[in-house]
Every structure is written in structure tokens, then in C-alpha cells.
Amino acid sequence: MLEILIFAFLGLIILTTGIMIIVEKKPVYNAFYLIIALLSMAGIYGMLGAPFIATLQILVYAGAGVVLIIMVIMFYEIEKNSFTSLKKWWTGAVLLSVLILDFVALKIDVGFPDKLGQTVKTKELSMLFFKDFIYPFELISILILVGVIGIFIFAKRGKEG
Amino acid sequence: MNDTYVAILPILISFIAAFTIIMFDLFLSKPHKIIKGFSLFFAALTIVPAVFYRGITTIGFKGQIIFDNLSYLFVFLIALISFTIIILGFSYNKERKVIYNEYYALLFLAQAGLIGFVSSYNILVLFLSLEIFSFSSYILTGIAKDRLSSEAVFKYFYLGIISSSFGLLGLSFLYGGSGTLDLRIILKNSHLNNLILGGLLLFLMNLFFKFSLSPFHTWTPDVYEGTTTPIAGYFSVAPKLAIIFAMLRIISLKQLSGEPLQDIIWIISAITIIWGNITALKQKNLKRLMAYSAIAHSGYMAMGFMLNYEFAKKYLLFYGIIYLFLNLTVFTFLNYLIKDGKDTVNINDISGLSSKKPLESFVLSLALLSLAGFPPTIGFFAKFYLFVGLIKSGFVFISLIAVLGTLISVFYYFRIISFMYIKEGDRDLIFGMGGKLLLFICGIMIIVSSFYPQLIFNFIKGI
Lengths: 161, 463
Description:
The structure holds 2 protein chains of 2 kinds. Chain A is an all-alpha fold.
């Protein structure tokens, strides 16, 4: 019963924040709602018994990805005072409560549905990465390098300015 | 032979070439001359493993990478293409002010991606290698950084990532439907269920985008027009050849004729042949014209995907190799049609050229006649064998459409020749040493192979 309640709650948060991302006009708020949606998604992963994916979701998407988005917003100075407008007590409260919910969800762990196979531990996953799939892994690193070269070329100003 | 280090050698050489060039660019004070020399050296070096290990099948990374005769033949051809494109870039880039030495590094990265794409059955590796090529090609498209080139990269990039994401969706269907990443196991099942069939279709759509077949061809003319001419030449041969090789691998596992996919390929190639040829008729810009010609030729080659493996490895591969040499000849010529940093590739710009540059005009005419499939030339044999293979396999109607398309194509190829020989004009061109040499070699190739097509059949015999 508890897992259904928490699942419904997380789902509701994802839905509302998903809609708010589209409806809201201030870009910083959009990023904020995106963080909440991604954190709630991490909770659902945790409930499914995939703690590794949940952690990655928090670290990579909610952490690095959205920080990048906020950095771009700052660069463009779309809205000078947007950060002071976020300084309200409830923003922190919402973030904290979603994070707590994530930990609760991790404890509940209903497990993966049988058809999708077993859950994978972090150690097994890294063994896969560095033993069986080392070649595709290295290819990804090269792919990122190509992207970096591209950004360098397109961002660099030519000699004539 | 199970040796990862030998198997990865051609890819490794390309990567090392790219990194060396980037490092030279970073640390040397006057890197340009050295980088030019080194890129030529590395392009030549890529051929070495292809010649040395030919006939040996090497497997690496637990079967994720396979170098057999097919892969080594591709390594050989792509190294030739890179070599040509690097030489063409020397004069053109100076003229159009492409100042970035990363140009050469990206060529090698693209080459590595294509080699990896051809030499694997693992769908993860297939996708990642193709993406390495795509990303490099997006950057190469926009490297001139002027208005036309920026427009081209914008169109190519957005359409490209959409098609790539569809391809990725298809690959996830393949994995979901079979539970394995190995294309051999996925396709060897006698019965393809709907999930696998849909996944294969989506993946093929991604390839068809790169192959510029008709519903997905819209990027081609704009990109060819906007980007630098060597890169346009590269796009017109390298990815197409890679996709022919990849399709040969797919056909060797599962014959597409008789599957529902056959009808889709039938329709797509018919539309491509008709649309490409008819639209090419009204083009004035030679680069756009060659783009539509490339689309039409994609259509001819796509017909070959319906053949069985025995026919495809002979006739389709033959067509692909001939098309490579002919298109490189034409783009070598177009490469020198540049003045004051701008492409002067309007059809009027070459009027009366035959009096000033008789030999070069003759080679271009030979290549164009071959592309049109005019009887005594090698292009005729390529088309003839392909059509014979199709008719033997029972595809008579599509062969008729293709013959009709060829007849239409004669008109626009001949118009270029007539502008060169009949019209009056005072334009003169300066072909550098490299351009003269390349045109000379290509001309010899066309003439010799026209009289002795068995040469190329012998070349691809061991596949």
C-alpha cells in the first residue's frame, strides 16, 4: 500500500512539474521545476530496485545537466534578478522533501518487474564497462572529443573577428 | 585470428593521426606545412594494414570488431578517398580561408568512424561509429564559417540528429526484440517478428538519410552547395561507400528480397531515381547538380540492396567503386573552380573551357559520360551489370525505371559537356600540381577500366 502511495505521489509531482516546466515563463524557474521532476524520477528508479540509476539520475541529470542549463541562463543574462526571485523559503523545502522522498523510495524497493531481468549492482556494471564493453566505451569518449573540437571551432572567433 | 591489436590497427592509425595533428596544431609555432605532410603520410599509412593483412580474418574485443576482406577493402578505398580529399583541400582551403588545421584531424576522425562502422556486427558499435562520422561531418560542413557554410551545417545538423535518434530507437527495438547486441544473432533467426522488422526499418532509415535516398534527401543539395568542395566530394563518396559495405553485411546475414523491407526499398529507390534525375535537369549550379546526380546514383545503388548476397557483392560493389572514382574525378575538377574565396560553380563559368584546358576538360567529359552510362565507358558496364543482376533476380519493372532515369540523366550530363566544348567563353583555370596529377590518374583509371572491366572484378574477387 505504501509503495503505491509513494509511487502515486512521485508520479503526481512529475506530472505537475512537467506541466510547470512548459507553462512557467521565467527560465530559472523552469530549471528549478526540471530539477524537481528529475529528482522524483530518481525516486521511482530507487523504488524499482535500481539504486545505481537513481544515483546517476541525481548526479548527472539533476546535478550536472541542470547546472549547465542555469549557467547558460546566467551567461545570457536573460533576467537579471531571476536568482533573487528564487530565494524563497519554500524552494528549499520542496527540494529537501523530494530528496527525503527519494531516500524513502530507496528503502521500499519493490524490485524490478521479472520480465526486465535482474537489477545490476554498480560493481558488476563497471566490470561490464571496462571488460566486455571497453570498445564502445572508448568510442563514446572519442565521440565526446569530436564534440569538443566542434564547439572549439564554432565558438572561436576568426582572425577577422 | 583472434587478435585485438591487429584488428584495431586501421582504426587506431586514424585516431592516432587525428590526435597527432591536434597536438601539432597546439604546440608548434608554424604547424601548417608539417600537418599537411603528416596527414598525407597517415592517409597512406592507413593503406598498409589493408594490404598487409588482406585475406586474414581478425576478430577483436570478443567479436565486437571484425576485420575480414570486406573491411580491408573498405579501409583501402577510404584511405584513397582521404588522400584525395586532403590533396584537394590544400589549394581550396587556402583560397576560401579555412584556417583551421582541425580540418585534417576531423577527416581522420570521420575515416575512423566509417571504418568502425563497416567492421562490426555489434549494433552499439555500429551506432557509435556512425555518430563519430556524423559529428565530424557536421563540423567539416561548417568549417568555412561563412554564410553559406553556416546555413548548410544548420540544416544538416538538425536533420542529422533527428535521423540519428530514429536510428537509435530502431536499434533499441532490435535489442528489445532479441535480447542481444549482435546483429548476426538478431538477423539469423529465420523469422523476423514485427518488433525486429520495425527496428531494422528505423535503423535503415538512418542509413538512408546518410545515403540521401529520396524522402530523406533534402539536406543534400544545400550541404553540397554550402560546404567546401572537397568536403562535398567526400560526402558524395565516403558515407555512401560505407553504407554499401554495411548493407552488404546485412544482406549476407539476411536477404532483404522476400521480406516486407523489399517493397519499401523498391519504392524508395524508384522515387529517388525519378526525383533525383528530374530535379537535376533544371540545376544551374554545378555543385547542386552533382548533388542531385549523387541522389540519383544513390537510387541506382539502393536497387542493389534487393539483390541476394552473391549478386550484391559483385554488381553492387562494382557499381560503388566505379561511382567513387567517377565522382572523385568530377569533384577534383570542381575543386579548382574557385575565385576570390567564392565558388564559381555556375554552369556558365565553365563555358569554352576546352580551348584553354583541353586535357582536363577531356577527363571531366569522360567522367560525366561514364556517370551518364554512355556505352563504351566504364559507367556503362557498372549500370549494365547492376541491371542484369536485377533482371536475373526478377526485378524487371524497377530496372526499366532505372533505364528511364539514365536516359534523363544523359541530358544534364551532356549539357555540362556542351557548355565546355560548344559555348564561347574566356574563363581560364589554374590546376595545381596535385589537381593535374589526380585528374591524370583518374583519367587513366577510367580509360583502362573501360576497356578492361575485369580488372575491378579481380580487385573485389576475394570478398
